[in-house]
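User: Earlier you gave me the apo prediction for this protein. Now I'd like the version with magnesium ion bound, so I can compare the two side by side. Same sequence as before, with the ligand SMILES added.
Assistant: Got it. Here's the input I'm using:
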Amino acid sequence: MKTESGYQCVGEYVRIYLPSEVDENSCPQISHIARECMKKQGVEQLVFDFSNTVFMDSAGIGMLLARYKEVSFEKGKIFLTGENERVSRILKMSGIYTIMPHIHI
Amino acid sequence: MCETMQLQVDSDSRNISFVRAVVAAFFSRLDPTVEELEDVKTAVSEAVTNAIIHGYGNGPGVVEIKCTIIGKETSTMIQDWGVGIADVKKAMEPLYTGRPDLERSGMGFSFMEAFMDTVCVESTPGRGTKVILGKIFPDVAEGWKQAAASAGERV
Ligand SMILES: Nc1ncnc2c1ncn2[C@@H]1O[C@H](COP(=O)(O)OP(=O)(O)O)[C@@H](O)[C@H]1O
Ligand SMILES: [Mg+2]
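And here is the structure of the complex with magnesium ion:
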């Protein structure tokens, strides 16, 4: 059941793979990984990949907003991909799509 | 008739997913839709997270969960004996967070309200917080019977 988060550089994007449950327990590790990859790879285009994610609550929104502040400070961009219907609903309710658009890659 | 379930867990973020899974499993006997169960899971997750990170400041403590089913009505109480909330109205405002130093969105109470039929918060500073989440799972079978009956009337 446990899916680890990690990242990978694909072309001009850095893709961050999110775990099956994005909540208060998993968010510190995701923040850590995102920061590490920003340090190593630069921060031009960050893609959060929800392909493995079946649950997310407001802790995930807080984590994404914190990344947005860091990334836009460096003039970078964040995109979201692979969201299922439920995750997409949570993201829509939070209004976060206006600053992090969905992309299909 | 009233059915109940009670659970006590340590203030530990690993217990958040455990609690939401147990609560969902308990209510699944009402044959809710997947969406209804996800709604309850999200709301419970928010309340338990708050108990751990705000109530106990991520430190030790006990979180108690009590679920009740009466007919189609469910209620889930999440209680902590932590710091409590001085101004509940302000705490429940969308985007308000008492911990801007953490990576919080301030959307926890808004999600609880969006996904549940009722959200009731009782809190005393220095003594703790009780959140009671209510949701009615409309009986799908009843809905079909009514639809069939009214369709029959029309014929
Ligand atoms: N169980 C609790 N004990 C103490 N304070 C709480 C509790 N639940 C909520 N709060 C307060 O209400 C605020 C708003 O909660 P919420 O809407 O979940 O946003 P967030 O958790 O992102 O801060 C919290 O920041 C905190 O100050
Ligand atoms: Mg919260």
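For your comparison, keep in mind: Residues A 58; B 46, 49-50, 108 surround magnesium ion (ligand 2) (CB under 6 Å).
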